[in-house]
Design brief:
alpha/beta; Rossmann fold; globular
Length: about 270
């Protein structure tokens, strides 16, 4: 299934998003209330959620994790030390598991990046046992990611191509209030709850904020990769001014909010 996220290099992903998905994984697991049985992680990336769940829940019998990006799966496999955990490259729209294989399905920061999240949700429902649960989390991209908005709004001020990138980023599916719950309802789940949670994105300095975008990874990194060196330097100058905002370069901390949703199969 195509994705709006430019997934190429696992090491770069760790700098762009992996370090922050690990911060969200804990609150998400607290909300999902998953601590036993057979579990599937859909869109596992480099394994942030999978590894934390395996560490926190010794009663988990098996933990399968899939992602469409080969480099992310290779990275996760190389870092796995738990025999209960199996990483596999697969498409969320066509999960390679029989019906009713899992007690719980989880998806952290993946559904909103998929071109057809409804198909992925249908597959998660298919492979989840009756009475099992499905929980997901997506960033509140329009209202809850000021560090991203700062980058995109700055770029859009002088590059029409960045306007298109910003518009596409801000209108991804499922990232508005109530949209996750509506998806859960449309697939027949019950006891649905949607809420929001916030973590912090902490940067040591401007370079810590800016350099990950230059790797070409992710939506904004993919945009930077289209620029020549002069345009990249111009963008960097403007983004630095926004980051510093009249103060010396140094640490900055940004709130990052996500929507969480869970429900139970009848």
């Amino acid at each position: 299934m195509p994705s709006t996220f430019n997934a190429r290099d696992a090491e770069a992903y760790e700098r762009v998003m992996g370090r922050w998905s690990r911060r969200l994984a804990g609150p998400f697991l607290d909300f999902a209330c998953v601590d036993r049985g057979a579990v599937l992680d859909v869109g596992c990336g480099t394994g942030s959620l999978t590894f934390l769940l395996a560490e926190r829940a010794p009663a988990i019998v098996s933990l399968s994790a899939i992602d469409v990006a080969p480099s992310y799966i290779a990275y996760a496999k190389a870092n796995n030390r738990d025999p209960r955990v199996v990483f596999e490259r697969a498409d969320a729209a066509s999960l390679p598991f029989p019906d009713a294989s899992f007690d719980h399905c989880l998806s952290l920061l993946a559904l909103h990046l998929m071109s057809e999240p409804g198909r992925a949700m249908g597959e998660m429902v298919r492979v989840t046992r009756p009475g099992g649960t499905i929980a997901g989390a997506v960033w509140d991209v329009r209202g809850g990611l000021p560090h991203a908005r700062m980058f995109l709004d700055t770029a859009a001020m002088f590059d029409p191509a960045a306007v298109a990138v910003r518009d596409r980023y801000m209108t991804v599916p499922l990232a508005q209030s109530g949209e996750l719950a509506a998806l859960w309802r449309s697939h027949g789940l019950e006891d649905i709850e949607q809420t929001t949670v916030s973590v912090r994105f902490d940067f040591a300095c401007f370079a810590d904020y800016w350099e990950p975008f230059r790797t070409g990874e992710g939506t904004m990194g993919g945009y930077v990769a289209t620029l020549d060196e002069a345009a990249t330097e111009q963008l960097g100058t403007h983004v630095r001014a926004a980051y510093e905002s009249g103060a010396e370069d140094g640490p900055r901390s940004f709130v990052a909010s996500a929507w969480l949703c869970r429900g139970r199969l009848p």
